[in-house]
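Lab notebook page, bench 4
Experiment: in silico fold of construct C2
Operator: M.H.
Input chain length: 272 residues
Purpose: comparison with the prior construct
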Amino acid sequence: MSRIKFRLQIYIIVLMCVIVAGVTGFMILEHLSPIDALYFIIVTIATVGYGDIHPVTPAGKVLAMFIILAGVGCFVGVVANSIEYMIDKRERTQRLAKLNMIVGAFFSDVGIKLLRKFSAMDAGIDGVRSALIVSNTWSEEDFSRATSSLRHYAYRLDSRTINLDELHAFLSGHRKFLLALLENPQLVEHDTFTDLLHAVFHLAEELIAREQRTDLPQSDFDHLSSDINRVYGLLVIEWLKYMQHLKQQYPYLFSLAMRTNPFDANASAIVR
């Protein structure tokens, strides 16, 4: 929850408490009807003050002063924070739009190619392939269902069966690109994508740090397998989120993404 939203909620809660306490107090002290008591509270807090209803007892006047001091301040706080929240929400929407452009660039240059490499080596991919063949008829529920099932999928790629030299060359060639993405301040708005970038960059560093990547001890192959499966799992989930975003916001890009689905053995950019 953002700081502005939390502050706004506090102001609203306090304002509601002041209104309830004020209405109850004026009904008891001034013998006003519920609607008259509420009317007096509202015109007082809104600083309108028509003067047609006013407290006549000393206790009622003390309560009115409390309402003025507490209620007016809370009302101004609610208005000010509501405006600030709307401005912040609009700016955050703009930042997320820019971030989604960054996510798109990542998948175009790195993500889709990695998914093709990893899925081709995934012996269990046929068991979940149906959850990855996104179509134009998918609803938000379909995306949620696919994401939920793939979060529980056991990613078991074995680094011994993967051409680590080829993977090293690919990630090394995109190292500067990955580093530039990590340095982008927009990433603070997208924790899960940041985790993915860190995982990919870490895998690249692990492969770069080894002079040779073939005759490794089993313990090191297991370590690399863990790094690869972490990247693979995060990639799949972020790819589904990206596909959902494209379907909602950019239908023409979504059409191309469907036709080039890295999990579809018959994928082709050519429209048939």
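Observations: The chain has two domains: 3-89, 121-259. The first helix runs from residue 3 to 29.
Next step: discuss at group meeting.
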